[in-house]
Each structure stands twice: as C-alpha cells, then as structure tokens.
Amino acid sequence: MTDLTIKFTDQLGKALVDADGDVTLAKVITTALLSPMEDDKTISGQEKADLFNLWFDKIKDNKEADLTSEDKVLIKERVGKAYAQIIVGQVFKILK
C-alpha cells in the first residue's frame, strides 16, 4: 500500500504548501491525473477516462492506495510532465 498522506518538502527540508495546506502525494497525483496537458490533445476519450478512473477508484478521498506497477508508471509519467524536479524526485522515490 502507498501512503497518500506523505508530505513534500523543499530542498531545505521545509514543508511545501499550497493554498489548501500541505502538498501531499494525493494532491500531486490528483493534479497529475486530472489536469490537462499539451500531450492530452492526442489521447483518446477512453485514455482520459482511464486517468479519471484511476484517480476516482484509488486516490480520491483515500489515505492509502493499492497501486499496480502500471498505475505507478502512468502516475510517474504524468507527474514528470506536470511538476518541477523537487516534486518529481520525491514522487519517483516514493513510487519505486
């Protein structure tokens, strides 16, 4: 199980916060899966629905998630496109 409540830090070890509070793994994954990206213009409606379903079924309102290897690969791909290195590096360490 993956702990979705893990909080992210900056390069000095201070908590990263946004307008809603601490930046957690759940928030990062939610943004990565649900935010439109330039590449999304070429993906099918089914692929967009799959991104939504992964979020809805495993991330939304959960403190832990049972992520498959395929889920982790997809999440890391999306996070890599959506975020800067400070977030990407932490996500990749968490989702080994």
Largest sheet: 2 strands, antiparallel
- Uncertain runs: none
* Overall strand count: 4
- As a percent range, the share of helical residues equals 40-55%
Number of domains: 1
Order of helices and strands: EEEHHEHH
SS strand fraction = 5-15%
Radius of gyration: 13 Å
Describe what this molecule looks like in 3D.
By secondary structure, this protein is mostly helical. It has one domain. The chain is built from four helices and four strands; from the N terminus they run E-E-E-H-H-E-H-H. It has a two-stranded antiparallel sheet. The protein has a two-stranded antiparallel ribbon with strand order 2-3. The protein starts with a strand and ends with a helix.
Indicate the topology.
Layout: E1 2-3, E2 17-18, E3 21-22, H1 25-34, H2 45-59, E4 64-65, H3 69-82, H4 85-94
Antiparallel strand pairs: 1-4, 2-3
Helix pairs in contact: 1-2, 1-3
In short:
With 96 residues, this protein is mostly helical. It has helices spanning 25-34, 45-59, 69-82, 85-94; strands at 2-3, 17-18, 21-22, 64-65.
Keywords:
96 residues, mainly alpha, two-stranded antiparallel ribbon, 4 helices
